Amino acid sequence: MTEDSWHDFLNLCLKFKKKNDLEKFFHLFLTHEEKQLLKARCLIVKALLNNEKTQRKIAEENCVSIAQITRGSNALKCIDPKLREFLILQFA
Asked: What would the DSSP string read from start to end of 4-21?
């Protein structure tokens, strides 16, 4: 597997203009479990960026593990500040 495969996937994602079409595309490429993991990561990132609750509280309220919260928190520490601001605006 190469980086080209990942870029091919990203380029395919960019082709979709309608949410319904993108949802069908992800239904083809992602298992139910993978979609659940993405939903959890999105929820975690949103909660961490909101910065109103402790990691333990986020885990308890959303039935996710502390390990998942930690991975999300560590990922946020490494992102470009412009991406952080973009995400904050999107989740507002």
From this structure: HHHHHHHHHHHH--SHHH
Domain boundaries, the chain: 1-30, 34-92
Structure tokens at 55: 């990691």
Answer whether residue 49 shows pLDDT above 80: yes
Residue 32: the pLDDT is 97
Give the Cα separation of 57 and 66 in Å (integer). 10
The 10s digit of each residue's pLDDT in 53-85 is 999 999 999 999 999 999 999 999 999 999 999
Q: What is the pTM of this model?
A: 0.85
The count of other CB atoms within 10 Å of the CB of residue 31 is 9
Long-range pairs of 81-87 with CB within 8 A, sequence gap ≥ 24 = 84/49, 87/45, 87/46, 87/49
- Record: fold of 34-92: Trp Operon Repressor; Chain A (1.10.1270)
